[in-house]
Predict the structure.
Amino acid sequence: MPVATKAVVTVLIWLLLCSGIVLILYPYVDRWLQEKEQTRLLNEWKLYKNQLATQSGSNPSIAQASVSAEKKSDNGVLGLISIDKIGLEEPILPGSEDKQLRLGIGVVEPDRKPGGANNYVLAGHRSWTYGKQFSRLNELKEGDLIRIESGNGSYEYTVTDTFLVKPEDIEVLDNSRKKSEITLITCDPPRNPTHRLIVKGTLKNGGN
């Protein structure tokens, strides 16, 4: 084999090897970057909450704050969702496009606020990383607690129902003006999803 041809073949082999390594590592690097950004958003939100508490002179109590104007931090984070049963703690971001869902949990209906007499709808990816985003949402049962922190206070919801719907069944988004509800949405099953997993809850403390 001519020297020039041999050199070209060697370069191609190395390029293929490097490409293969990049393809293998990319999902892990991408996941690490996402988790790093999530951690930053959570830390900034907690700092923002501490600043609000300092300004008001006390910590906002559960379901006691006004929901007339939702506050958000400088980085756009609207709040935090936590569910102790499944070890969930994720930032709540405005919107439900991929750029929001990659970093946290998205608000589907931007005009609705937690704690109000409406259906507060949140969507999240069914992450393949155990415990991240809504990967364990299927473990929730009736009576489990969902906590929402916002710039206007903290609210606790009690799970009332879990069920599956088809992607085109959007009645779960319907608003309720008679009671305070929450709806959590994610894909099911995690791989090649055909349905949406729905978790419904009602406000436990205060509200309308």
